[in-house]
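Please produce the structure of this protein holding nicotinamide-adenine-dinucleotide.
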Amino acid sequence: MPGYQSQGPVDCTITVDSSKVKGKTAIVTGGANGIGEAYTRALAAAGVYITIGDLDESSTEKLTSEFPKQIHFVKCNVTNWDDQTRLFREAESFSPTHQIHYVVANAGIIRKDEVFEFGEPTEPELSTIDVNIKGTLYTVKLAMHYFIKQNGIVPGPEQHDTCLVLIGSGAGIHDCLRIPQYSATKWAARGIMHSLRRTSHFYGSRVNVIHPWYVKTKILSEEVFEEVKAKGVEFATVEDAGQCLLRILSDESINGRSLFIAARKWASTGYMDLDLEDTEENELRKEIQFDQMRGNPVEDGLIV
Ligand SMILES: NC(=O)c1ccc[n+]([C@@H]2O[C@H](COP(=O)([O-])OP(=O)(O)OC[C@H]3O[C@@H](n4cnc5c(N)ncnc54)[C@H](O)[C@@H]3O)[C@@H](O)[C@H]2O)c1
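Below is the modeled complex.
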C-alpha cells in the first residue's frame, strides 16, 4: 500500500463494490443508534462482522437478532479505558479471522455549549470534549495497537488493508455558530487524521474522516430538528452515511480524505469530497510540510 498521496477528490458517484469488505471485521463505537446504527447495518449487509461498543444495550437487541452471527454488542463507555480495551478484546475474539480490519470512532455527543454562554462565568461542563476527543483518542490508540500487532511496521504485500474512520461533522469544516466546544471536537477528528495519514501505510493502514451534515437522529431533540427544517435546511440521510463508509472501506486508495455526508441537492449519492485536505498544490505549504517531516525520522522506523 502506498503512503499518503495528494490525488484529488474521491469520485463519490461510482457504484460501491462492497464485495471487497465481505468477511472482514469492524468495530463501531456508538453503533446502537442513529448514524452509527446505519454504519452497522451497511457493514452487516456487506457481510462484515461487527462489534458495537455503546452505552445503550436495549437498542441493539433488534440489530443483534437480525444479524445474530454478524453483530456482537459490548456495553462500553468510550471515555472509560477499561471498557474500550474490553471492546477491542471481545471484537478480536468475535472475529472469525481473529483480526480487526476496520474501526469506526463514531460515538459522539453534543451538549449545551457553556463555553459560549454569557453572564458571570462558571466552570464549563466539558463532557463533549470527554466523549468526542478523549473517547476517540482511546479508540485511535487501540486501533493502531491492533493494526500494528496484526501487520507489523514493515510495509509489504502480506499486510492486509486496515482502516480507521473518524467521525467529524459539518462543524469540523464550516463555521458553525456558537458551539466552540463541539466544533473543537470535530476539527480534532481532522487533526488526528492529518497526524496519522502519512505514516499509517507502515502498518498497512489508512485513516479517513466522515463529516455528517444535519442527519435526523437522537443527537438533538425533535424540536431542534423541526426548527432547522422549518428554516429550509435539507437533511442528509443515515443510509447515505452507511454507503459513504462502504465507499471508503472498499477502496484501498482512499487515505487521508474527508468525505462530507450531504443533502442530495448537493451530492447525487448523498456524500461528496469537498477536496479539503490536499495542500500539495500550494508550494509554500508543501515546503513547510516537507520541513516538518524532515524533523521526524519516520523512514528509520522510529515513528509509525
Ligand atoms: N446527526 C447529525 O446531524 C450529526 C451531524 C454531524 C456529526 N454527527 C456525529 O455523528 C456521530 C453519531 O451521531 P448520531 O447523530 O448518530 O447520534 P445519536 O445520539 O443518534 O447516536 C449516538 C450513539 O452514541 C452512543 N454514545 C454516546 N455517548 C457514548 C459513550 N460515552 N460511550 C459509548 N457510546 C456512546 C449513544 O448511546 C448512541 O447510540 C457523532 O459523533 C456525532 O457528533 C452527527
